[in-house]
């Protein structure tokens, strides 16, 4: 029986964090998934190895026991063959027996019912050879939590600012059900909203999985979002920029606000409107700020009277000789 170096399989160091292991697994799983490589037996074998490595390294308890194996794995194997559970030999007084996999039934279905794991895994993490030979019917009868489901949902910036309701039709396993979901105010592009218990139904009385909604924000030509702050620009007539005045500023999800324009406001000047940005998720009273850039607009056509006034202003601005 060959020792499996799961760290090498995922291409991570033995000191890798849980996040690094998860990232490495997801990257490799996408690359070698059978749907991406139809009919490629080498990719199929690699995909099985990647999933097996993640089954162990992605589970803190399995990973701890795997690290304990080290160079002594042959002794563990001999202990198992002698009728001892592997971990009785590793840690006397500890819990006997193996550790069942979470995704084994799904992998069996994907690969036509064959055992998707190596002998090494079956001995040390699947309950030993007797477990590997056990009929599938008894294995699938075990309680198994339902898988999570992920769906993408598009929101406008206005909806993201004030929150929104969505009625979704979720399809899984040939069945469709309707779910009403409340999207909290303040969600950002790429964030996920979790709806507990609305994923795949569990087996053997186990809990259902969760439904995750991945948020995609529709681009808004009026605003740029940076964290919880919003940035926009407005046009201000030359007379208001010179003499002072007011301008109306749109706010997504809320009524417009009035911005006071001080006299001699320069083109490109930025004003900050506190508390008119994006609310924090779950904390509607905590909002970012709205930054407004003033673009001074010049007249395209002048009446005779306007031209006379601008000429008079030009004469006033000429230096005295």
Characterize the structure shown:
The protein has 321 residues and is of the alpha+beta class. It folds into 3 domains: 6-140, DnaJ domain (Helix Hairpins), CATH 1.10.287; 149-217, Urease metallochaperone UreE, N-terminal domain (HSP40/DNAj peptide-binding domain, Sandwich); 224-316, Sandwich (HSP40/DNAj peptide-binding domain), CATH 2.60.260. Helices cover 34% and strands 26% of the residues. It has 13 helices and 13 strands. The chain has helices spanning 6-10, 18-32, 41-57, 60-69, 73-81, 86-90, 104-110, 119-124, 129-133, 136-140, 157-162, 238-243, 304-317; strands at 149-155, 164-172, 175-183, 192-195, 211-217, 224-226, 229-237, 245-251, 254-261, 270-273, 279-280, 283-287, 290-297. The strands form 5 sheets. It has a 4-stranded mixed beta sheet. Strands 1-5-4 form a 3-stranded mixed beta sheet. β6 and β7 (229-237) form a beta hairpin.
Topology diagram in text:
Blueprint: H1 6-10, H2 18-32, H3 41-57, H4 60-69, H5 73-81, H6 86-90, H7 104-110, H8 119-124, H9 129-133, H10 136-140, E1 149-155, H11 157-162, E2 164-172, E3 175-183, E4 192-195, E5 211-217, E6 224-226, E7 229-237, H12 238-243, E8 245-251, E9 254-261, E10 270-273, E11 279-280, E12 283-287, E13 290-297, H13 304-317
Parallel strand pairs: 1-5, 7-13
Antiparallel strand pairs: 2-3, 4-5, 6-7, 8-9, 10-13, 11-12
Helix pairs in contact: 2-3
What characteristic shape results from the CA principal axes?
Answer: elongated
Determine the strand fraction and express it as a percent band: 25-35%
The residue ranges in which pLDDT falls below 50 over 5 or more consecutive positions are 83-104, 127-141
**Average residue pLDDT:** 79
Distance between the termini: 102 Å
Number of domains: 3
The helix-strand sequence is: HHHHHHHHHHEHEEEEEEHEEEEEEH
Largest sheet: 4 strands, mixed
CATH topology of the largest domain: Helix Hairpins
Structural class: alpha+beta
Number of helices: 13
Query: Strand order across the biggest sheet?
Result: 6-7-13-10
CATH superfamily of the largest domain, please?
DnaJ domain
